[in-house]
Write a structure and sequence with these properties.
There is one protein chain. By secondary structure, this protein is an alpha+beta fold. The protein has 3 domains: 31 residues; 116 residues, no CATH class; 80 residues, no CATH class. Helix content is 41%, strand content 24%. Strands 1, 2, 3, 4, 5 and 6 form a 6-stranded antiparallel β-sheet that branches. A hairpin with a 6-residue loop joins strand 7 and strand 8. The longest helix has 32 residues. The N and C termini lie far apart (110 Å).
């Protein structure tokens, strides 16, 4: 009888071990299916809303809507969008008071890309989760970028396209960077990784726009190196507000004389 009990216990331990093994394999497969997503949404208000003062504006303004960025983990694009919709149900209780549009959504291939994207703008940590357990949800979300006129909306749409561009299917190619003249892997704007990152940081983080002129202004310190390529690609959407600094006539003559010598 004791031998029978021992055999039964042995079989039970083997069964439990097999179940744990299958469970671990299922969890590993679940984790492998999960993807990081970089999603930018546009929330358009049915009626303009008063927003608090935001730099560089010192007075409250009427906003037509806002853009917001989310970093999430899910098994598919559809489920990732559902996460954001659930988030908005708490942020915007009146569903009839706004229209939601997914401006851009891109898959983040690795953790380094996720950290690099998070460093480009201010992000807030959402509910803490353990990634090694394959948990899904919104990990980080960005601040709301309000717009008060169609021109600002077009500028923010362009930024959304540029911000997720490096995580799209564009593989890049070998060529010369238009900004620093270095030869190597460049993107579709002919910029190396370093110059493209600097360009995005200047455009996204500093937000140097000229609202009074109703046009999007490139950062002054970055215009010279990227003028030709940016205008060639985005000339129909962008307008350079401030003119390029030109040397005085006397200085130009002195430089020319020096070159001849």
């Amino acid at each position: 009888m004791r031998a029978a009990a021992t055999r039964h216990a042995s079989r039970h331990r083997k069964t439990l071990g097999w179940q744990r093994s299958v469970g671990n394999q299922a969890m590993e497969a679940c984790i492998a299916m999960m993807q990081h997503y970089n999603t930018i949404i546009q929330v358009e208000f049915e009626r303009p809303r008063v927003i608090p003062p935001q730099p560089p504006h010192e007075e409250p303004r009427l906003a037509l809507g806002y853009f917001q960025q989310f970093f999430s983990t899910e098994a598919s694009v559809k489920k990732s969008k559902d996460l954001i919709r659930d988030h908005l149900r708490h942020e915007e209780p009146e569903a009839s008071a706004y229209n939601l549009r997914f401006s851009r959504i891109a898959t983040i291939e690795d953790r380094e890309s996720l950290e690099r994207l998070m460093a480009q703008g201010k992000t807030k940590r959402a509910t803490p989760k353990r990634e090694d357990r394959g948990e899904t949800g919104i990990w980080y979300y960005g601040e709301k970028s309000y717009y008060t006129n169609p021109e600002e909306s077009a500028a923010l749409t362009l930024i959304a396209e540029m911000e997720t561009n490096e995580e799209d299917d564009w593989p890049g190619y070998d060529g010369q960077c238009q900004a620093c003249d270095a030869y190597g892997r460049v993107d579709d704007m002919s910029l190396c990784d370093e110059c493209a990152g600097k360009f995005e940081r200047d455009m996204i983080r500093q937000r140097q726009w000229d609202y009074s002129a109703s046009a999007f202004a490139l950062p002054v310190e970055f215009r010279e190196g990227l003028r030709s390529e940016v205008i060639r690609k985005y000339g129909s959407k962008l307008e350079l507000i401030a003119p390029s600094p030109q040397p005085e006539k006397g200085d130009t003559k002195r430089r020319r004389k020096g070159k001849k010598r």
